């Protein structure tokens, strides 16, 4: 088998943070996904945006040559079927140069979107993908299964492949910026599921610090903290980072479920991951594979995460954190 690239375009569904009043910012996860898409094709990377005012300069820097802007007619892009209908309309508008693949993020909405699209195009849809490439002209995808105990590799040999990537996952490459990406406005024929749902009210979740999947530094608390996470939160604040947690910590109710990292949570790809009292079960470590540097504070020198770490501090996590915070205050 040989690794190669498509000679067809790749369409990427991207997300922005913000609103019309304050402007939109391309998410770090979408920026990474666009760079992954660039490794799959010798043709163009096309972005599908879900607002009327996308961050064009960032899309340009990510190598996007054209931007599809669907007319959502007041429907919410938080509804999976609405997004799927927009992608279907985009594929139809781009039919003169057929797509090689469609990529989206494997979050709660993205997994549903992939399912809708797989059914519509009668093609394979892969979710929670951790790595993707083109092998012998077909998509080759990797993912963790069975609670993270096994890693699998599989292909989508025919049809239009739909790939939902875990945020921050996959090998990215720095693209060549495009001076002025073209804009493609698209009218959408909405399906019955899209017309059946109306979002009446949207209340934004107030994040303490940066969003977990966007943070450059993540301080993750494990069961070894015994639920005492105040110092870990203080360290995250001091480093302008975000707090994450293992599944066991979320099961205990010590940290909200939205902060769970791993197989059944989110994937993160920070510059620095600090594991505090985290043993490092594989269903957790599969969610931090994109971290640039891993630092571990743990009493157990045999803990799996210690063996993965770039730097391990063996000791009581509360005592170590207290010393670290003192040093930071004095610096």
UniProtKB/TrEMBL annotation:
Molecular functions per Gene Ontology: electron transfer activity; flavin adenine dinucleotide binding
Domain of life: Bacteria
Domain Electron transfer flavoprotein alpha/beta-subunit N-terminal: residue ranges: 10-199
Record flagged with keyword RNA-binding: no
Transmembrane segments: none
Function: The electron transfer flavoprotein serves as a specific electron acceptor for other dehydrogenases. It transfers the electrons to the main respiratory chain via ETF-ubiquinone oxidoreductase (ETF dehydrogenase).
Description of how the protein assembles with itself and partners: Heterodimer of an alpha and a beta subunit.
Family the UniProt entry places it in: Belongs to the ETF alpha-subunit/FixB family.
Cited PANTHER family: ELECTRON TRANSFER FLAVOPROTEIN ALPHA (PTHR43153), ELECTRON TRANSFER FLAVOPROTEIN SUBUNIT ALPHA, MITOCHONDRIAL (PTHR43153:SF1)
Protein's UniProt name: Electron transfer flavoprotein alpha/beta-subunit N-terminal domain-containing protein
